[in-house]
């Protein structure tokens, strides 16, 4: 039986852009928004291998010229977007703490996880402000509040900066009809996460199960006892961009199975 939530068409007539929307969390979000009635555009560096049911535009968002080309194509073919999901990002730098990270590592991580989103917001916001309506979601990470020096220092710093940017942007844009929110997933069952665990296991000479338990142990474990499914993150994003969340802006929503050991 089809999930009743998937039948709700509360985004009819809306146009949405999902960056990094061809796999993992991004693909799950794109599919969910389309199910809710939105016209969905997805972008990634490379054309996906399999079939994709959304309008695809190839772009490397760390490159200003690609952002300009992407924006021009969206403006020409769609007249802008109502919903922007800044999902592109990732952990691309080595572990090992400060001494393992070069200037190039810091620059690449900040470009991917922070500047790319800022650049795209700046390009697409004018039409949202003109219409006095729009929603921007920045996909961050619980790592921003629970950094691990030996595993994700530069990534965590870049996501913490994204959180601060998202909050300040929300304050600026609230009077202009544009809502800005942050979603911070914890451990989520995506190909990059599974590869990260496999690589960690191989480097440590342990099993994948042992590697998973060691990594979770560093963050205090997950009370729910499992990683999130991408579709669960997508469900939260769908709610936040829907009319049901019309009074929500400026908030950072952790979706981590209870793993953050802090009072938010």
UniProtKB/TrEMBL annotation:
Xref: SUPFAM superfamilies: NAD(P)-binding Rossmann-fold domains (SSF51735)
Gene3D superfamilies xref list: NAD(P)-binding Rossmann-like Domain
InterPro entries per the UniProt record, alphabetical: NAD(P)-bd_dom_sf, Sc_DH/Rdtase_CS, SDR, SDR_fam
Family as reported in the entry's similarity comment: Belongs to the short-chain dehydrogenases/reductases (SDR) family.
Protein name, as recorded: SDR family oxidoreductase
């Amino acid at each position: 039986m089809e999930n009743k939530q998937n039948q709700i068409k509360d985004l009819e007539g809306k146009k949405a852009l999902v960056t990094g929307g061809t796999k993992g969390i991004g693909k799950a979000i794109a599919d969910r928004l389309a199910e809710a009635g939105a016209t969905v555009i997805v972008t990634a560096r490379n054309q996906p291998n399999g079939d994709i049911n959304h309008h695809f535009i190839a772009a490397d968002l760390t490159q200003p010229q690609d952002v300009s080309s992407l924006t021009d194509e969206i403006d020409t073919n769609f007249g802008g977007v109502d919903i922007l999901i800044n999902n592109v990002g990732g952990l691309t730098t080595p572990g090992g703490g400060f001494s393992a990270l070069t200037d190039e590592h810091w620059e690449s991580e900040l470009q991917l996880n922070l500047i790319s989103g800022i650049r795209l917001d700046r390009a697409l916001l004018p039409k949202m402000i003109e219409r006095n309506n729009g929603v921007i979601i920045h996909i961050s990470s619980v790592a921003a509040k629970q950094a691990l020096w030996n595993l994700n220092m530069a990534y965590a710093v870049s996501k913490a900066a994204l959180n601060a940017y998202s909050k300040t942007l929300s304050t600026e844009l609230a009077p202009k009809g544009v809502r800005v929110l942050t979603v911070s997933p914890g451990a989520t069952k995506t190909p990059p996460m599974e590869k990260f665990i496999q690589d960690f296991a191989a480097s440590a000479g342990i099993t994948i199960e042992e590697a998973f338990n060691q990594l979770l142990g560093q963050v205090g474990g997950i009370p729910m006892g499992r990683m999130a499914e991408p579709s669960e993150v997508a469900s939260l994003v769908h709610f936040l961009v829907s009319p049901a969340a019309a009074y929500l802006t400026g908030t950072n929503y952790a979706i981590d199975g209870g793993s953050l050991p802090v009072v938010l």
